[in-house]
Design a protein that fits this description.
The chain is α+β, with helices and mostly antiparallel strands. Helix content is 30%, strand content 28%. The protein has 3 helices and 4 strands, in the order E-H-E-E-H-H-E. Strands 2-3-1-4 form a 4-stranded antiparallel beta sheet. The radius of gyration is 14 Å and the shape is globular.
């Protein structure tokens, strides 16, 4: 069963996010430490939360994994990735692990 890990960085009045650092440093760090276990990766920059609504998230990153073993291996290698988060944001990331159904 294909699984996904989504990491969402919510926008609030007291948060900040360095998109340049995220793109140039954090995403390559994800690839370096977790990449061998990931089937695909995408990241979406928040533009809007609906018609005439500001975005609720800076970024939502989605990684897919072939199976639970691949996800577990990636999470086991994620410590340097997690330690890097305070370097580009003070937002508390939200995570969702799910089964890809479509």
């Amino acid at each position: 069963m294909t699984l996904s890990l989504q990491v969402a960085y919510p926008i609030t009045d007291d948060t900040n996010f360095d998109m340049d650092y995220y793109l140039a440093t954090h995403l390559p760090l994800v690839a370096e430490h977790m990449g061998e276990h990931i089937s695909s990766t995408s990241a979406s920059k928040g533009l809007a939360g609906g018609p005439d609504q500001p975005p609720g998230y800076y970024v939502i990153a989605t990684m897919t994994f072939a199976d639970q073993a691949a996800l577990d291996s990636a999470l086991g290698a994620a410590e340097p990735v997690l330690a890097d988060i305070p370097k580009f944001t003070n937002a508390q990331p939200q995570m969702l692990i799910g089964e890809v159904i479509a």
